[in-house]
Amino acid sequence: MSLVIFPFKQERPDVLIANVRKASRHARVSEVLGIGYENEETYRALETAAPAIAGETGAEINLALQRRIGSLRPGKGDAMNTGLDYFLASSHDRLHFYDADIVSFGEGWIDKAETAADRGYDVVRHYFPRARTDAMITWMITRTGFSLLWPDSELVHIEQPLGGELLLTRAAAKVLVDEPRVRAQSDWGIDTVYTFVLTRAGLPLAEVYIPEGKIHKLYGALSDLRTMLRECFAAVQSLRGLDIGSGYGHEIERPGPVPAAVASQNGYNLETTLRLLTENWTQGQEELLELFPGHVRDGLLEARTYPRFGYMDDETWYESYRILLDHFDPAGEDWAELLFKLWVARVLHYTANVALRGFDFSSRYLHDMVVAYAKRSARAG
Ligand code: DGY
Question: By CB distance 3.0 to 4.6 Å, which of 9, 151, 234, 284 could disulfide with 330?
């Protein structure tokens, strides 16, 4: 039987409770566990609702607070690692993780993962159609970094390496619990490190496609993603130099039609984002820019007064990313802000030159981009 875990911080209690109810109705699920960051409103709302859901569905509904396991900012990583420990101490055969804020979550998500696991996969990842300007950390940071650093590996082809929706068997959970890097990664970098470590272990991996998409809360300005960006980049950088082996092939379910709501959606607010390039400049950032090619330095410096981003095409992003890998200091505030501005410029360039041309065009472009990066990096050696 399976355990479903929803890690959460502050979410809409009605969304979380509805998701717990849906998960607990599934015939394969005998327990649902909510892992909260702290005992706040969402936590208490689920606590209050739990007995009734258990009564209706016959599944056990439990709550736990995340434990302090890692050494970075206490965040999602601690919650997921708390979940892994809970799972391995239980008698369940399989563990599912789902983000707590998904409005489109349904029992079908569990079905798809269970069916793939029945066919022998130890790791099943869900992937979704996402708005063309959503997933900008996934594409510009994680997938780009994986292509640059491990161009011959399976990592290049994993659709959503930051996805928080996945199934693990006990063997897969054990691989993660035994890896000190995973234990240390208490922040947003957890998904990157899970993906890396599971891929390196060569466990059979399937990706299943969820056609309705992951409808969840989107962002206002890109500034909402600042901490996640910094932590996800630092996680990729921290893995640099590790050997992963070459591709072993994994199953990816073919994507189907994309719902109109996803195809037409914009992932962030353009107007408030433009201003971010002009704000929070320091002399330290200006000095760090000296490490970058002249057109990047001059372009970004001009953005102090006018939000320029025309220089940040895919080639320039590749070069800038390499420099970031060599020099970025995860503890440095100037570095964090400069990384953020470079990424904002990249996302704006992509939005203006690619995303505006439509959903299908953008999706092809992004897939081609990471494969081209991998080829270029493999050639460069
Ligand atoms: C990503 O890039 O995948 C993050 O979830 C932000 O959209």
Answer: 234
Q: Atom 6 (ligand 1): residue with closest C-alpha?
A: 135
* Count of Cβ atoms closer than 10 Å to residue 158 Cβ: 24
Cβ(133)–Cβ(355) below 8 Å: yes
**Closest atom, ligand 1, to C-alpha of 218:** 7
Ligand 1: which residue has its CA nearest to atom 7? 135
Which residue intervals of the chain bear CATH 3.90.550.10? 2-258
User: What is the predicted pLDDT for the residue at 218?
Assistant: 65
CB-neighbour burial class of residue 175 (10 A; exposed 0-12, middle 13-18, buried 19+): buried
Question: Residue 250: how many CB atoms within 10 A of its CB?
Answer: 18
**Beta strands 166-169 and 94-97: pairing type?**
antiparallel
Does residue 147 have its Cβ closer than 6 Å to ligand 1? no
- 239 C-alpha to ligand 1 centroid (Å): 20
Residues 177-212, buried b or exposed e (16+ Cβ, 10 A)?
A: eebebbbbbbbbbbbbbbbbbbbbbebbbbbbebeb
pLDDT score recorded for residue 261? 85
Question: What's the pLDDT score for residue 44?
Answer: 98
What residue's CA is closest to ligand 1, atom 5?
Answer: 135
Answer yes or no: CATH 3.90.550.10 is held by domain 2-258: yes
Cβ atoms within 10 Å of 7's Cβ, excluding its own: 25
Please enumerate in sequence order all residues whose Cβ is within 8 A of that of 232, keeping only pairs 6 or more positions apart, or say none. Answer: 137, 141, 142, 162, 188, 189, 191, 192
Burial class (CB in 10 A: 0-12, 13-18, 19+), 132: buried
* Ranges in the chain, pLDDT < 70: 216-219
Structure tokens, 255: 């994507």
